[in-house]
Design a protein that fits this description.
The complex is a heterodimer.
Chain A lengths: L12 E2 H11 L4 E4 L6 H9 L5 E3 L4 H15 L3 E5 L3 H4 L2 H10 L3 E7 L15 H5 L5 E4 L6 H13 L6 E6 H5 L1 E2 L21 H13 L3 E5 L1 H5 L3 H11 L3 E3 L14 E4 L6 H9 L2 E5 L5 H4 L10 E6 L13 E4 L2 H11 L7 H13 L13 H12 L4 E5 L3 H9 L8 E2 L10 H11 L4 E7 H4 L5 H7 L5 E6 L4 H10 L33 H7 L3 E5 L5 H10 L4 E6 L23
Parallel strand pairs in A: 2-3, 2-4, 4-5, 5-7, 6-7, 9-10, 9-12, 10-11, 12-13, 13-14, 15-16, 15-17, 17-18, 18-20, 19-20
Antiparallel strand pairs in A: 1-8
Helix pairs in contact in A: 1-2, 1-7, 3-5, 3-18, 9-14, 11-14, 12-15, 16-17, 16-23
Chain B lengths: L1 E9 L4 H11 L4 E8 L5 E9 L2 H13 L3 E6 L5 E12 L6 H10 L3 E5 L3 E8 L1 H11 L4 E6 L3 E4 L16 H8 L1
Antiparallel strand pairs in B: 1-3, 1-4, 2-3, 5-7, 5-8, 5-9, 6-7
Classes of the chains: A alpha/beta, B alpha+beta.
């Protein structure tokens, strides 16, 4: 991949150019980069490669790093972000930790103070590699200009192979500015990194097929591993060949189309009642690219307690970490499913079980009060889903109630059309992630379904959307509260409001004394804010106006914020309270 | 259960910090940790004593292996092996007095007196943890003024019989050779 162009063979290059040239050689099309003192040479180099790499200037380094995630999540290719040393670098930390938990391949490049100043508490110095050790898949502090081609090769290789994850490359300024004749063919030095060995053995696949053959109540539990290994087709083949009902994690949505009769939708704390009941009653759980997260399992001992568990994951440390597997398989899920599909037999003896699953699904669907006179969050999402089904649409979300409702009510048909900060749960994820997805898919309709709390954590990126011509739409479900925390306050803390109202503190809602369904004195004015950034905006409250408002947003030429006024007492249901079991599920 | 794990790691800056940080942040109980270079200059070896059940051991091992700079991890305590601690200890020993008594104990424990001061002596002793502990107890009555110990190091014993081919950890030959050349 990183072979030199004829033109640059044996040419003296500075470190910044070598790094940027490495990006070009790794087919990087776009980088989200915010300059500063220690990364200026890199930015100067980016201008020299501007016909090969688009540089997008976010308005906050965190926005840039989540945009890189948005790019990676929707393409499967590594997302690249860059920041200067010190505060620039520390502003990347949240998105790096986020990428680690959700296994997203990003490469974060940071400027660093000159090597001679490292350790001297220099201006804008932070030991960013030290800070990021436990939240990166791998990290480099480049101390020799000759290492750059090898380090970049290793960075891309580690980020994108095996279980993907974030890689940090810290580049001192003197390395960027010094020069050498780069050795583009320097071999990688990764004696401790063995991904190529991780493929299921034929005996293991036979074991899986045999277990499926014996099962009376099998269930597939599919996660982000299906998405990141691009195995949706293989999964669909398995599901249709065997007829086994399939539930997905929040990271796995899109693996199986929402309208597939065998889709049991999302499981877990706010998953469907039918998925959670199926987990409770199944006798074989086929866990594919999942990690038994606590938001999925609730109290672990009671999770799938009657089931034999097949666990296929590429990361050996996920096997037996939370739940012991009866058939543990360390493998890339894609070849494992390909092999399994060759030998697995149709299940003709599970009609009763499938019928049971479908009855639950019919009788206990995700639902909301359709009679409410205003617009509920669920209604807004359902309508958006209906209006966008026929076009290429990518959805991102912030974190909280709106995130769960989007997972429940938006009908995802394909992988990589849905982005959620799932493991880390980072508010403010939605807008920048949408920005990155839009940069990767200029022709797609990219919509950030957001809350008013989450949006304000990275609202500055509206400027980036405007200035870089990224026509991202924001469907703002604005209830003036931190809705998920409010829900827990109302359920578990007698409604005592503890800093969960986002308007002025003298308002009645701040102390939970509001007596209307809506927080009436609205703050801030998102339409004015959006207009200040130069982008389209409107607010809507009447149910009758919703569809027209959504259509205006969808068809708007350029970025747009639709401020939807929604009530704040709505709760995300079903709900299995933390560390409880499916039998404690709150349905109504 | 007590396990002795041995890890071959790339000799790069930060690898010790990375590993000790991982162990701490995941809450593993590490009794001892020793690091040193190996016969090949670009690899170091770390020896850990981990306390926990099989499940904990499996996780510690897999989490170690997941670190990119960790080349190989072996459970030394799963094989016939030799374990050693090294200790330096200063004990009060005024001229005359009980010096000869201390010397006798040092001989019994196969230690060595490496420095003699005006009223204290420094002793070097190595051996299994239990022996070291016993020696400390014997010295206590004389007044220990300073004590320093290395972490545990361990090595699997050589093979004695012919069909013990599965005994002892084998290096991931290809990968390490590739790295060394």
């Amino acid at each position: 991949m990183a072979t030199a162009d004829q033109a640059t063979d044996n040419q003296l290059m500075n470190g910044a150019d070598i790094l940027v040239k490495s990006l070009v050689d790794h087919d990087v099309e776009v980088i989200f980069a915010y300059p500063g003192g220690a990364s200026m040479p890199l930015h100067q180099a980016l201008t020299r490669y501007k016909d090969r790499i688009r540089t997008i200037l976010p308005r906050h380094e965190q926005g840039g790093s989540f945009a890189a995630q948005g790019y990676a999540r929707t393409t499967g290719k590594p997302g690249i972000c860059m920041a200067t040393s010190g505060p620039g670098a520390t502003n990347l930390v949240t998105a790096i930790a986020d990428a680690k938990l959700d296994s997203i391949p990003i490469i974060a490049i940071t400027g660093q103070v000159p090597t001679a100043n490292i350790g001297l508490d220099a201006f804008q110095e932070t030991p960013i590699v030290e800070i990021c050790r436990s939240i990166t898949k791998h990290h480099f502090l480049v101390t020799d200009i000759n290492d750059i081609p090898r380090v970049m090769k290793e960075a891309f290789y580690v980020a994108t192979t095996g279980r993907p994850g974030p890689v940090l490359v810290d580049m001192p300024k003197d390395i960027q500015n010094s020069a050498c004749v780069p050795d583009w063919d320097a071999p990688m030095e990764l004696p401790g990194y063995f991904v190529e060995e991780r493929t299921a053995q034929p005996e293991q696949i036979k074991q899986v097929a045999a277990a499926i053959k014996l099962a009376k109540r099998p269930l597939i539990y599919a996660g982000g591993g299906i998405i990141s290994s691009d195995s949706s087709d293989e999964l669909r083949e398995l599901v249709h060949k065997t007829g086994i009902p399939t539930t997905m994690t929040v990271m796995g949505l899109g693996a199986l189309p929402n309208d597939d009769p065998l889709s049991m939708d999302m499981l877990g704390m706010h998953g469907s009642a039918y998925a959670n009941w199926a987990i409770r009653d199944c006798d074989l759980l086929i866990a594919l690219g999942v990690r038994f997260d606590d938001r999925v399992t609730g109290r672990i001992a009671a999770f799938a307690e009657h089931a034999k568990i097949i666990h296929i994951d590429i990361d050996p440390s996920e096997i037996n970490k939370i739940k012991e597997a009866h058939i543990p398989i360390v493998s890339d899920v894609k070849p494992a499913l390909q092999e399994l599909n060759k030998i697995v037999e149709p299940k003709e003896d599970i009609a009763e079980w499938v019928e049971q699953c479908q009855t639950w699904k019919r009788d206990y669907p995700f639902k909301y009060d359709t009679q409410f006179e205003g617009i509920t969050q669920q209604h807004a999402i359902s309508e958006l889903s209906r209006l966008t089904q026929d076009r290429k649409t990518i959805i991102s979300v912030g974190v909280g109630q709106h995130q769960m409702w989007a997972a429940q009510f938006y009908k995802f048909k394909d992988p990589r059309t849905w982005m959620s900060s799932s493991g880390l749960g980072t508010m403010g994820f939605g807008l920048p992630a949408a920005m990155g997805a839009q940069a990767a898919h200029p022709d797609a309709l990219v919509i950030d379904i957001d809350g008013d709390g989450s949006l304000q954590m990275n609202i500055q990126e509206l400027a980036c959307c405007y200035c870089e011509n990224l026509p991202v739409k924001v469907l703002l479900l604005n209830n003036q509260h931190l809705g998920m925390v409010v829900q827990w306050e109302d359920r578990f803390h007698k409604g005592n409001r503890a800093h969960t109202y986002l308007g002025p503190t003298h308002h009645a809602e701040a102390t939970g004394d509001g007596d209307t369904k809506y927080a009436e004195e609205r703050y801030p004015d998102f339409v004015t804010i959006a207009k200040g950034y130069g982008i389209g905006a409107a607010t809507v409250r009447d149910k009758a106006d919703l569809v027209a408002a959504l259509e205006e947003m969808i068809n708007h030429d350029g970025p747009y914020v639709l401020d939807v006024q929604v009530p704040y007492q709505e709760q995300v249901l079903p709900m299995i309270p933390s560390n409880h079991t499916v039998d404690d599920m709150i349905i109504e | 259960m007590r396990h002795v794990l041995s890890a071959v790691v790339q000799n790069v800056p930060g690898v010790l910090s990375h590993i000790s940080g991982m162990l701490a942040s995941r809450g593993y109980n590490i009794d001892s940790l020793a690091v040193g270079e190996t016969e090949t200059p670009n690899l170091s070896r770390m020896t850990f004593v981990v306390v926990g059940d099989e499940r904990v051991l499996e996780q510690v091992r897999k989490q170690l292996e997941k670190i990119v700079t960790v080349v190989q991890v072996d459970d030394v305590s799963a094989h016939e092996h030799v374990e050693r601690d090294l200790m330096l200890l200063k004990v009060k020993s005024p001229p005359g007095g009980q010096r000869s008594e201390i010397r006798e104990l040092v001989d019994i424990f196969r230690g060595r007196i490496v420095d003699v001061g005006h009223d204290e002596i420094m002793i070097e002793i190595s051996g299994r943890e239990t022996k070291i502990e016993a020696f400390i107890e014997r010295m206590r009555p004389y007044g220990i003024t300073e004590l320093v110990r290395t972490g545990r190091i361990a090595m699997v014993r050589g093979r004695n019989d012919e069909d013990a081919s599965t005994d002892g950890p084998q290096l991931h030959d290809s990968s390490i050779r590739k790295y060394l050349k």
